[in-house]
Amino acid sequence: MQKKLSASLKNFSALRIGGLADTVYFPETMAELTELLDEQPARPVVGGCTNVFFGDLPELICTKYLNKINEISSGLEAECGALLEKLFDFAAGVPATVGGGVIMNFGAFGFELKDFLRSAQVWQGGAIKILPVTELRLGYRSADFAGIVLSAVFEKKQLEKKNEYLKLRQEKMPWGQPNIGSIFKNPAGLSAGKLIEDAGLKGYKYKDLQVAEKHANIVVNNGAASARDLLALIAQIRQTVRERTNILLETEARYLGQIENGAGR
Ligand SMILES: Cc1cc2nc3c(=O)[nH]c(=O)nc-3n(C[C@H](O)[C@H](O)[C@H](O)COP(=O)(O)OP(=O)(O)OC[C@H]3O[C@@H](n4cnc5c(N)ncnc54)[C@H](O)[C@@H]3O)c2cc1C
Q1: pLDDT digits (tens, 9 = 90+) for 99-128
Q2: Is 182 assigned a catalytic role?
Q3: Most Cβ neighbours (<10 Å): which of 45, 96, 103, 143?
């Protein structure tokens, strides 16, 4: 198994925000992954890091080498580190993985992963179980089960509109600038981006961070932003929107780490 010591997590997050990890593990077999979890269940697991930003961490497990996809009688079985865009056109252009996709119930263009998912193999407190999709309790950018996704079985692939969806994404998003997609979830029936824009924050700059001109629910890193900066900006946006509308935005982006050492350089 590959390991990186004193690794800068900045290079992992798609937003290029991260402190230091003492050790990042890159398991190359499922047995290596489950051994790491059996040994220390609290080790955080990431896939494509397209929805996370980091502070400092003692340890991290990255699943990118667990990426096999096999055709089986009931559909397709994909390991947790397999890229979603190899299976689904609605993820085209986003280097997100099956594990992170299940945890977030990745969705776009009217589709959600749960529309295609049959079951997931999950590590739960030392046991390996197969949970049917109903037991994963997937909702809007959420899953409600304890455990680490080892692999998932999907009914079928859908790749027909890859180019069309990629083009739409490129038009809608600050393409090519470091970002992790939507920072906030849309409140029921409303658009978080519109609420942020109406609060006058589109294009707002805080240190090296900027609320994207193209999409107010996306924040881009113009250089050397830290986790501390992003947490502060998130708090500012939530407060401004709340004062104006009485709506408290819920974050979709995930923060992993501790801030103690001024991390996130
Ligand atoms: C350019 C861009 C466009 C995006 N567009 C969309 C979009 O259209 N729709 C959408 O829903 N999201 C979008 N996102 C956000 C992101 O891609 C999704 O949230 C995606 O599901 C995250 O997958 P990941 O593998 O990168 O997960 P990570 O960012 O690595 O992790 C996300 C969360 O899942 C956990 N996790 C990761 N792997 C596992 C595992 N195997 N078992 C248990 N927990 C795990 C992590 O600990 C973390 O809490 C976009 C992001 C970017 C950068």
Answers
A1: 999 999 999 999 999 999 999 999 999 999
A2: yes
A3: 103
